[in-house]
Amino acid sequence: MVSSSMEELVSLCKRRGFIFQSNDIYGGVKGLYDYGPMGVELKNNLKSSWWKSMIYERDDIEGLDASILTGREVLKYSGHEDTFSDPLVDCKSCKSRWKSDQLIDKSCPNCKSKDLTDPRPFNLMFKTSIGPVDDGSSFAYLRPETAQQIFTNFKNVLDSTSRVLPFGIAQIGKAFRNEITPRNFIFRVREFEQMELEFFVEPGSDEKWHKYWIESRYHWWIEQGINKNRLELNEVNKNDLSHYSKATVDIMYNFPHGKEELEGIANRTDFDLASHTKNQKDFNISSKVLKNLKSTTKLAIQNLEDKKWFIPYVIEPSAGVERGFLALLNEAYTVDDKNSRIVLALKPHLSPIKAAVIPLKRNNDKLVNQAKNIKNNLQKLGLGRVMLENSGNIGKNYRRHDEIGTPLCITVDFETLEDKSVTIRDRDTMKQQRLSPEQLKNYYQKYFD
Ligand code: GAP
Q: Which band of pLDDT confidence, cut at 50, 70 and 90, is reported for residue 133?
């Protein structure tokens, strides 16, 4: 049986060290989660798969890792100070707070009272200050999207790489939003990671590139193991578009709590570069932007033929790491009733542990040393984490590794001490076979390549 309830996923995540409630020894803080030993590996594998597909497997995208703390001007001229808000409603009876679109029949979802305030905009950005003196001039934000620092670094990247259009800048990193009601486990949280690409194109070719990236990103999720029957493309209604977008298509996934956005692909036009550029009046800007007299840098490109400067358009595929993580867990969670086990059938490149090496008898020095050697040799192949599993009962070890998605278990027994052969067990088929050291190396490399 594939696909699961949220309760099953939350329970697996805690039991097997994927995700913990943050600050839980003090009662927990809503909307914040910590990633445990298995969670951090799965998250890193997901991010590295995205990075590979964007940077290493293409020749038109550069990487960036910009600061999280963002000076006020960036988020003022980007339009976030004015528009990055949700409509907040207070319940006067029970004092709870809601996003107005969460109300059911205009009543409080908590106490059902209809005695509510009118909606008012609540800005979702976290504010802070930089440096020892908090006098207003040091005012800053934790970035609400990774994108803005890609735009402010446009000229730095262009000058240091000699790129020509079309080209992209990709970044993975934290973003922060003071969500009014974080919910559905890691689906809507206050601190999360985004995998964002800003792909700069000639004005006029933007619609073609928008289509290209919608297709490309949809197929990428399928390659990660998402069943296309649970994916859907949804064109965002004109009235619901973000302030910077001319058109956005969301990749929707059927999460355990319902169908919601996994990734958004927006046509941001020239809005962002035009917002941040120096000498805005010199350009034919198509979007409505704030007047910016502070920027020191021209964020534009010169046409080689007529020598005129113009502001490129940008297409932005923006995916949430947490939402990807949740979708992949949901896809992989399998109850194998026939064999009374739960299996996390992740694609091998995403599995937190690639192989567990298990001495048949716990604390038997000869078996453990042999297992350590095998572990070290496989680890050196650099295909991901290999684990020495010296915790006893072989059946329990198999069960534990099925649940965390380890594709291969390698058992070291007394025969191994004689001829160095091992038994390898496949997570999905449960089939076992005996392999010599040379065969093991080949099998392992072939499996993950
Ligand atoms: N730069 C564009 C942008 O930030 P967005 O639709 O607001 O667009 C992009 O966010 C992606 O970030 C979403 O598709 C989602 O995967 C993820 N995301 C947004 N808010 C989130 C939250 N509160 N918790 C978890 N993920 C979130």
A: confident
Residue nearest to atom 24 of ligand 1 (CA): 188
Give the burial class of 418: count Cβ atoms within 10 A of its Cβ; 0-12 exposed, 13-18 middle, 19 or more buried: exposed
Residue 45 in contact with ligand 1 by CB distance below 6 A: no
Residue 304 shares a structural domain with residue 255 = yes
Paired tokens of 4: 């699961």
Q: What tens digit of pLDDT does each residue of 190-223 get?
A: 999 999 999 999 999 999 999 999 999 999 999 9
CB distance 196 to ligand 1 below 6 Å: yes
The model's pTM is: 0.96
**Which of 243, 318, 321, 328, when mutated, tests ligand 1's pocket best, judged by the most ligand atoms within 8 Å of its CB?**
318
Residues 300 and 359 in one domain: no
Closest CA to 199 of 60, 396, 390, 73: 60
Residue 293 backbone dihedrals phi, psi, to 5 degrees = -105, 5
Is residue 193 lining ligand 1, measured as CB closer than 6 Å?
A: no
For the chain, what is the domain count?
Answer: 2
| Residues 284, 423 within the same domain | no
Question: 383 and 268, same structural domain?
Answer: no
Containing domain of residue 367, as a range? 353-448
At 5-42, the pLDDT tens digits run 999 999 999 999 999 999 999 999 999 999 999 999 99
The first and second tokens of residue 25, run together, are 């020894």
